[in-house]
Amino acid sequence: PLAPRIALRDTARNRAASLNRMWAGYRNPDRMPDAMKGCARGFKLQFNHGRPQFERMGLLAETLKMNNAAVIALRREDVLRHAVSAIRARMLKEVSLAERGIGDAHIKPESGPAARAFAQEAVHVDLDRVSQLLESIAYNRQRMERFFRRCPPAAEVTYEEYLTDRLGVLNRILAALELEPFAEAPPQDLAKITDDDLSKAVLNYEEL
Predict the structure, then answer these.
(1) Residue 140 and residue 134: Cα distance in Å, rounded?
(2) Would you list the DSSP string of 48-73?
(3) What is the mean pLDDT of each run of 10 residues along the chain (208 residues)?
(4) What pTM did the predictor assign?
(5) Is 181:155 a contact under the CB 8 Å cutoff?
(6) In 3-state terms, what secondary structure has residue 160?
(7) C-alpha to C-alpha distance for 163 and 106, rounded to whole angstroms
(8) Which of these, 94, 91, 84, lies nearest to 131 by C-alpha position?
């Protein structure tokens, strides 16, 4: 019989151990399962000082370097739209929770009509909340840039580039990972909830 799985404490060291297990096949190619060959395995790291994913960034940097992991830097140039999108995502989460019992901050194929209607509506945003988010975004960006000085990115892209040239951005990432490029962009399930023109997404845009 299989031994019962033991739940590990959610600590930085245990998270580093988890990454080492995930990338073990890349450190030992002769023992790599066929399913992993020609593929890349990674994770998304968000810099959020309020809810950090990784407490010890130095340990994370060491783990990435030990596994020869490629870091892909994704930045958002328009920080005001970033803040407004965060506010709208929280509102959408409440709409989805009321409609489907699931607090989803994205529009997905399974999203209901109320959530889809919300994505097209302009909303009133709290200006003090926007200011708080802008400060938080600036602080998180500083932490991210400090981390990139420890682990220089193999590729750097922006969210705005991704929106205008999705295939080009994806293929730049694949090139950094030494993988074959896409002939055409793969389908995506998520839809934007904030219009590129903020005046169409925010009722009190002039105040903003």
Answers:
(1) 10
(2) -TTS-S-S-HHHHHHHHHHTTPPPEE
(3) 50 88 84 79 89 88 93 95 94 94 90 92 95 95 95 95 94 93 88 86 92
(4) 0.82
(5) no
(6) helix
(7) 16
(8) 84
